[in-house]
Amino acid sequence: MRNPWGWVALTAFSLLFFTFIYAPLFVIIGYSFNSNPVNMMIWEGFTFDWYTGLFGLSDRATGVGNRAAYIESTDQMLAALRTSLTVALFTTTISTVIGTATAIALARYRFRGRGAYNGFLMMPMMMPDIVLGIGLLIFFVTLGMQLSLLTIIIGHCTFLTSYVFIIVQARMAGLDPALEEASADLGASEWTTLRKVLLPQLAPGIMGGALLAFVISMDDLVITYFISGVGDTTLPVFIFGMIRRGVKPEINAIATLIILASVIIAALGLWLRSRKID
Amino acid sequence: MAPLLEIRAARRDFATPEGGKICALDGVDLDVGANEFVTLLGPSGCGKTTLLRAISGFEMLDSGTIQLGGADLTALPPFRRPVNTVFQSYALFGHITVARNVGYALEVAGVAKAQRDVEVAETLEKVGLAGMGTRRPSQLSGGQRQRVALARAIIAKPKLLLLDEPLSALDRNLRQQMQIELKNLQHRLGIAFIFVTHDQEEALTMSDRIVVMRAGAIEQIGTPRDIYRHPRNRFVAEFIGETNLFAVTVDRLEGDTALARTAEGVEVLLPADGRKAGERLTAILRPADFTIAAQGIPGTVTRAVYLGSDLHLSVAPEAGGPDISVAIRDGLGVGEGTRLHLAHDPARVHVLEDA
Fold this sequence. Notes:
The structure holds two protein chains of two kinds. By secondary structure, chain A is mostly helical. Helix content of chain A is 73%, strand content 0%.
């Protein structure tokens, strides 16, 4: 017989664990619909005002959209979102290409310093963001580069490539080398083999790596804070700026929208992973 | 007529992690005729897989040449060699259908879709998988995957098909069935097969010729009967089938027969042909060469294994020395502890002079 109290304890622990993780998220979602503009801990009634306010459609807005009272405007927020998306799209593309190519190269070719190469690729992931951020800033300044969209993209690529590399490498490790040999044996050149066998086989890993890179790029505050130019505020940097002037209900609305977007992306990623290839 | 495949002085060394060298191919010469079924047989690490991979192009030779139908393949990359391989792991492409797997060689070669579909259907038919084209490899059984791998490798009509232990993942019954099917298929296609295995029974069943390899070198090339009845040395004798080896000294001659004895005193009869008393040699007798008789080598059965068609016995000779393996047809009344005499026909003895 199993000890029934063991089960009770395990169940209680699991519930507590998930509550601890998810409660803050649900609190924010709840707050974002609370119409009390001053103290969001006191429920006043249900409203969409903070959402409509984000896009300048409501008069009741306290922060974003209300030009008279605050610096932040809907235009600025949308510009920040656009910057974030631009950065994320470029960095995802670049780091996915480089990370995938590196994973293939390291798995299939033997060369001097291969082990060290592997180690160096892990480094940016281990490095504290703040160190990476300061390092990049000094690097760009030394080179005489103006901080801009370009520096953010370069900065993000430096560490996101490692993430993509790790994920594609895991997929690569599970791949039978005989697949590529079979392709060559049947008359396919290396390029054809890459296109018709290797990339399709790696696709789940590549997609997973790209999604992760996208999410991290969208989310990064610390590194971006150091290397973004004045006119190139990303969404996290923008929100961080807003919070410094107090947590406004609009921030809850933005957070809720970001949670929604994250859930969609995560679901997409899980779905892609579950489409078993082989 | 020149052979289809000519390998001359093939040599390949591998560096070991400790900085040493392992010679995987040590100057191998091999000819394979068109439409011949040749098996490379040997223990793991003997170089048989390296030789196969040298022919397919996945291993480049350090020295030596490989010619196929008069054309030199030695320096060509795998995708330019007109040979195809059935891989041990099958290496089917999981992301595409069975039909696209089978048609891959044609697709890569730029054959039009309509033509491809016809040939894929024909080839699937040949391996007994008609109508399975729309499935994914993951939806097939092990035996079916094996057939897909085979179909994929023969669709481009290579002159030479290489098979790398293709049956090792199948269960015994299926393996025996596939052995026969492969042999039939090879006859129908009229192409040469080079088949790698470490299973000597498989080699005996299927091959026109067997190439026995050890430590990167060829020990013996011959028909299954040759290899089994007339092994050139101890290694081949012991590797192919169960063997009884007797290190004997010729004692005396009696007409056509020479009487020889082991150090322990077990008596073996040999054909006389020019033997002299005092000569030392190795006599080889297969388990089935013995019969139970009134006279012969006296011994006691230490182990009896019933195998359906045969009864396999281990017999400890009274004189001493290693147990003798015996296979007899009708073993009624014989069991562990039975005392008996083992007789043999001197003509069945194969003699190695190198002892």
